[in-house]
Structures are given as C-alpha cells and as structure tokens.
Amino acid sequence: MRLANIGNLGIKELRSLVRDPIMLVLIGYSFTVAIYTAATVMPETLQKAPIAIVDEDRSPLSERLVDGFALPYFQPPHLIDQAEMDARMDSGLDTFALDIPPDFQRDVLAHRQPTVQLNVDATRMSQAFAGAGDIQAIILTEVGKFAGGHQLQTPTSPVNLDLRSRFNPELNRVWFGSVMEVINQVTLLSIILAGAALIREREHGTVEHLLVMPVTPFEIMMAKVWSMGLVVLAASAFALVVVVEGILRVPVQGSVLLFLAGTAMQLFATTALGIYLGTVARSMPQFGLLLMLILLPLQVLSGSFTPRESMPAGVQDIMLAAPNTHYVMLAQAILYRGAGFAVVWPQFAALAVIGSVLFGLSLARFRKTLATMA
Q1: DSSP-based three-state secondary structure for 211
Q2: Burial class of residue 44 in the structure, from the number of CB atoms within 10 Å of its CB (0-12 exposed, 13-18 middle, 19+ buried)
Q3: Helix or strand (DSSP H, E) at 80
Q4: Prediction pTM value
Q5: Is residue 82 packed enough to be buried (19+ CB in 10 Å), middle (13-18) or exposed (0-12)?
Q6: Domain ranges in the chain?
Q7: Where is the ABC transmembrane type-2 domain positioned along the sequence (predicted)?
Q8: 70, 96 in Cβ contact below 8 A?
Q9: How far apart are CA 198 and CA 54, in angstroms?
C-alpha cells in the first residue's frame, strides 16, 4: 500500500465530483434547504388549530372561555350552534368542537361541577392528542380565575408539580428537527456519494484503466472512502455551524469537534456500505432501489424519529448492528446534552467495530468485482 496512491486517487474522485453538477446540487440542497425545511415545518405541539364553540350558556364565564382560545395556538373560534357541530367536523373544518352547556356559569358558582363536552378529530394526530390537554388546561385556568374573582373556593391539588424542561427549555421543535436532519443527511449523502462514485467509474469505463495501474483494490477503495467522507464531513460542519447555529439559532450544547469526530467514524462505516451497494448494483437506477431498502430502516429504526425504547425488543437488538443507531445516540448526547468523550466512548467503539466489519466486507466484494472484470 502506498499513501501517495490513496491520496492521488482520492483527489481524482474529488475532481470527478466537481464535474458532476447534479451531485453538487444534491449536496448543497441536502445540507442547507433540506435542513432548514425539516426544522421549520415540523408541527408545533399546537399551532393555529381550528376550533368551534357551541356556547349554550351565553354568560360572562362562557365568553371568557371563548376569549381564552387565541393565536398562535388556536385560530379564532367559530361560534356555531349544536346543529352545525357534527357537519363541520364531518367536513374536516374543525379539529376541536367545544360544547359549553346551558347554566354553565350558574353551576360553577353553585359548586355543581358542570360537564363541558369536547369533540376531537383524532385523525389529525399532530394536534389532536396534545390539543385536548391544552384545552383542558385553558378551561381550568379561566374557570379558576373567574372563581377567584368571585371569591369562590376551588379544589386544589395536594401535590405541586415543578416542571423543568432540560436541554430544550423552550420546547422548540426546531432544536430537534434541525439536528436530526443533519444526522440523516450525513448517512444519506455518504452512501450515495460513495456508491455513485463506483458506479460512475464503471459507466465511464475508468475501472479498466485502474486495473492496469500499479494500484491495489484497497488503495482504490480507501481513496473513495476518504474523499467522499471528507466532502460530507465538511458539508455537515458547514450545516451545523451556519444553518443550525447561525440561521436557525439553535444553541449547540456540546463540542462540535467531538461531534465531527463521531461523524468521521460514522462516515467510515457508511461510505464502506455505499461501496458495497455500488458493487451489487449495475446501474444508478438499481442503486436507487437498493437505497430505499437500506436507508428507510437505518433512519426510521435508529432512534432519530422514535425513541428506541418504544420499539420491540427484537428490533432494538437487531439495530445495534447498524451504525446509525450508535451515531444517533452519540450525536444526541453531544449536541443536546453536552456530553463529553467519557460518556460517548461506547458509541465510538461500536462505530469503529461496525465500520471495520463493513469495510472488510466491502473490500472483499470489491476485489471480487475487479477480478471478474480483469
């Protein structure tokens, strides 16, 4: 093995990438627009939810409840009658329909604990479940204020809950969406670039040129790994500093350099996986189909969308063999909770082992492919 060969071949890969405008646009889009979009379009816990209210009481208290639902969490309530409520929900016009019964204020003042009916369109999952709790909180708050103004005793809880939201005190969806999208794009682009580089060699006929040169399969493969990995590493650093911290104003808690070191370990594994897929696929369309089979489980089951603890035990065990699982754990610990190397070293070790195995398998497959072409 000669390091000069690996370096020169890697530079050749970078030059080939520069001459591929489609790949350059993909890289630019993935680490800028895609991250910004994923961070900002994630639904709020509740934002501009449509609500209709049937006010059968027409009292100061019921009017106070109507005024309690306002932007940005709710759209201005539509005051409707009982006959319109079901029709509006059937038409999908309202996510929530609140029915305030007659004599509501009188029953509150008389300590009769009246019942308020809330109908929820549960097909709108991003708002329905959280919104029901928020509506209950608004009603209890407004009734409590009204009761206090009339010097009424309201039931008090025997326990006070002191809620402290750590790592994301603003409960801002952008903090989660932006970082997770950077993680997903690292995996996506590294596999695509490495596999496409190999397929591009085959389609352009330059593999045959490499076979007659004094280079080994290890040198060829290592050149693709470091060059494509370097591109994704630089793009992820740019996205984290400029897009996430700069444009989206997300405060990164931990060391960016430690995160990039973990990203480099992840890239070692995923670029090797991309080369393996590139040896299996015979064309870019086949490569794209293989990506669909590989990327979806890697991203969906890695813990970036759903906590691993919520998955079946068998799935959790199987996904320990995937590099994404350890990379997500590593990235979340560093960027969200400010963890140091003493906390995330098991994930570094796991990525090193998984990357070495994938690299060995890819190298064996790559050598076999070259042998059949010789």
Answers
A1: helix
A2: middle
A3: strand 78-80
A4: 0.76
A5: exposed
A6: 3-42+172-373, 51-149
A7: 128-369
A8: no
A9: 65
